[in-house]
């Protein structure tokens, strides 16, 4: 098992090195004068993009409260909020933001932790599906990708993949797998989902809406520095998040990876590299880095009963 873990880590390290090298190559083409000529053309778009963080985090908060409701932790709103903010901080330093459950569980009694872990991962799964779904929509509408991949093949693969993800999401509790059906944690999750048959639908819709919001943020941020007010650019941004999601990351919420892919995708449309990098890094900062920094100040150790 350790050998497999090391191998997987090594593969991810190679991929990270590859996209980092790609980013370096792109940056080496940017001259100092290009940075000096960077101009904030539309401040209002920058302001609106920053304000949308409230909707972005608000939707994630709604997903979190839905999870707590179905688990019936009966904890205080303050405790739930601190756990939510702690999850943002731990999510930032784990691959694909999957580690948000790490910060959350320590604000709850031990008996609730397995359910919180599994239900949080289930919620994260819907965010992954949203990236796949909107990426597929983008390819179908644009009828092209920046990589020159055969569209027939990629369309069928993504359609099949999205169907499999959706099927697993709604039917995994009905699979009669010997390795799971007798485990207490699995049976509890199945029971919780039966108590609220609309839980998964609500979480999925919130994730789809959240994906639309943060891609809209990116689009507005890009328009703050350049002229990108067209629907095709918005669709290409969906592809940025699609390809970014498919590339494994080690930490910092896809930082470097997303910038590399954004340079390739948007650079092929004629947008300036400085504008692309600035927009992407600012979106990362306001959506992930800033909330994580805030959480470090407001979150503190809480004494809870572990029994």
Topology, please?
Layout: H1 2-28, H2 32-36, H3 43-51, H4 53-71, H5 77-92, H6 100-105, H7 113-142, H8 151-171, H9 178-181, H10 184-195, H11 199-225, H12 231-246, H13 257-267, H14 273-298
Helix pairs in contact: 1-13, 3-11, 4-7, 4-11, 5-14, 7-8, 7-11, 7-12, 11-12, 11-14, 12-13, 13-14
Taking the sheet with the most strands, its summary is: none
User: What assembly state would you assign to the polypeptide chains in this entry?
Assistant: single chain
Helix and strand string, N-terminal first? HHHHHHHHHHHHHH
Q: Strand percentage, roughly?
A: under 5%
Question: Helix coverage percent of residues?
Answer: over 70%
List the total number of helices: 14
Structural class estimated from helices and strands: mainly alpha
Number of strands: 0
- C-alpha termini separation: 32 Å
The total domain count is 1
- Structural shape: globular
Throw out a few tags for this protein.
307 residues; mainly alpha; 14 helices; disordered C terminus
Protein model, in words:
- The structure is a single chain.
- By secondary structure, the chain is mainly alpha-helical.
- The protein has one domain.
- The chain is built from 14 helices and no strands.
- The model is unreliable at 302-307 (pLDDT under 50).
